[in-house]
From TrEMBL, chains A, B:
Keywords: DNA-binding, Transcription, Transcription regulation
PROSITE patterns linked: HTH_CROC1, HTH_LACI_2
HTH lacI-type domain location: 14-71
Annotated ranges, domain HTH cro/C1-type: 14-58
Transmembrane segments: none
Protein name: LacI family transcriptional regulator
Superkingdom per UniProt: Bacteria
Family annotation (Gene3D superfamilies): 3.40.50.2300, lambda repressor-like DNA-binding domains
Length: 347, 347
């Protein structure tokens, strides 16, 4: 023990052998834990990981001939905004000569164990995770190996102790609604995302504040929760437009939902924007390509991913980073919004 | 020389030292060539590469602790079908415990040198390239290092000596046009892709054959070349619809062009499908989400990428593969096609 402590003091670095000795296990067990192998009993794994983290164990760096890698892991690769995020990570990775490893794994809440094991073998510079939050276990495993990680949280529910990058959802909801109010609308519907996602609530709250600040009534019948997908927009809009006193404008909460709203309007014989104005959210490519092109809130997805990757590199160099970075959103006016029909037609 | 040849015969494997000796250069020069370093004179590089290839030089395999990687490289990461291809490579990579490294590089015709160098350092199992064709130089560099590669060729112009995966473009054009003819259309326009892309011509030829086989006149004024993007569809459709005797249906050549056609129709006050039927091509997600949802030709992008990746694994195991694999396309009927208005309205 005395010898181990002197080494520690001398270099500030602990070796695998020392960790094994302190944990009372074999070196090969410590090595298995480092490699994320599933065949180690949980209590043993936790004990070893705590020692690794407490002593800031760092593996020998990758050999000079091994090219650096940055990992990005999603739970849902088909997401329309995934491509923008990938592009952002790529932009920064390129400047560091690093390759980007892309994986789809797990559920909205955590990547799966098979990704963990494979990722640890690849020994990346760092990991960008596109998940709502991370289980304690995953965070511990990454910290134990000094692998920096950052969350990009489209759901808007960041762990307070994990560096994360998001965007200004409340402001986005406010701006979308203000735009419709400025066009002359009074009865404005909102179809936001799922109730359990913080970004849904933030956008909805922005809508409420815009209405209230303009002295307009917030009618609960004009507030519906969707699923952020086309079907949710279509179903909720069909519902909303078939009620008495339908809205003259709908803030659709996401571009995909806005597409569903466009189709619901078309099926009911309503023209956009003449009979119904529609605002989306995200500003993904298909917002430009919709017919008519969508007025929407630009979510700076690519820059969010670039910032997240820059944060990884700073963490790796042991530089300080903000725990939470929130990028501004902005209104993009296109062709799906206009004055309400009554104002259009004039006397 | 004699000693070198005996080694060769004994193991069938040549060493770096032997290559250096035969090329009349230093071992470190051979090593630089293997690593794709740019600071080797071209004649030297070519000489060394030819020796490497002639002797089927294979680097020592990656260490057990190094996780396997499969590379996919695009020239244009934002392409709407890129995500489907990535998904396909991922599906197969997962089953081999391999990570997928994703890169955007170069022009339509070739990846850039910085990718080459970084990729060689990563020593992947194989490379899937999404390019129209490959320069001889790139092929030689990959072959010299026994790195298997396969092209996925959305342009439809495969090198005869490179394993490639594509889909049945001529059949797709035929099916799209037949569908419109079966709905009762006679004046059918086509907006295909750029003139210099083989897949544009194949789809156009399919259209021509369908018209001719049905005894219908092929009017050159109803044939336009676009750009496979939304703008091309919009501009060409605006042109076509403003001429005398406009078509009652347009085969738009790609889903993105179809979106442009939908917008051109909307601006001219034409309803789809009542006044104009529209068929796309690709069947990317946004075909389902368009308003109305697009009738289109399904290009099996994900399966193409899965097949390409399976081919890589077989090449790596030195199993035979087809040089050219062409997957079938299929018609997907949604809401953007119907009978021409005259037939709708009846006597």
């Amino acid at each position: 023990m005395l010898l181990a402590m002197r080494d520690d003091e001398k270099t500030g670095r602990i070796t695998l052998a020392q960790v094994a000795q302190r944990a009372g296990v074999s070196i090969s067990t410590v090595s298995k834990v480092l490699n994320g192998r599933q065949d180690v009993a949980a209590p043993t794994r936790i004990k070893v990981e705590r020692l690794l983290e407490a002593h800031a164990y760092r593996r020998t760096t990758r050999s000079a001939h091994e090219a650096p890698l940055i990992e990005i892991v999603f739970h849902e690769l088909e997401s329309i905004w995934a491509m923008e995020l990938i592009r952002g990570v790529e932009n920064v990775a390129k400047t560091h000569g690093a390759g980007v490893v892309l994986t789809e794994s797990g559920t909205r809440h955590a990547p799966g164990p098979e990704w963990m094991e494979a990722m640890l073998q690849r020994r990346p510079l760092g990991v960008v995770l596109v998940f709502s939050a991370l289980p304690g276990e995953v965070k511990e495993q990454l910290r134990a190996r000094s692998i920096p990680f950052v969350i990009i949280d489209p759901a808007g529910d960041p762990d307070p102790d994990v560096p994360s990058v998001g965007s200004a959802n409340w402001n986005g909801g406010l701006a979308a609604t203000r735009h419709l109010i400025e066009r002359g609308h009074r009865r404005i519907g909102v179809i936001t995302g799922p109730e359990d996602m913080l970004c849904s609530r933030a956008r909805l709250d922005g809508y409420r504040s815009a209405m209230t600040m303009a002295g307009l009534e917030v009618d609960p019948a004009l507030i519906l929760f969707g699923d952020f997908h086309v079907e949710g927009g279509y179903d909720r809009a069909t519902e909303m437009l078939s009620r008495p006193r339908p809205p003259t404008a709908i803030f659709a909460g996401s571009d995909l939902q806005a597409l569903g709203v466009l189709e619901a309007a078309r099926v009911q014989g309503l023209r956009v924007p003449h009979d119904l104005s529609v605002v989306g959210y995200d500003d993904v490519s298909l917002a430009r390509w919709a017919s008519p092109a969508l007025t929407t809130i630009h979510q700076p997805l690519r820059q969010m991913a670039e910032e997240a990757t820059q944060m990884l590199m700073r963490l790796r160099d042991r530089e300080p980073v903000s725990t939470r970075l929130e990028l501004a959103t902005s209104l993009v006016v296109r062709k799906s919004t206009g004055a309400p029909a009554g104002l259009n037609d004039g006397p």
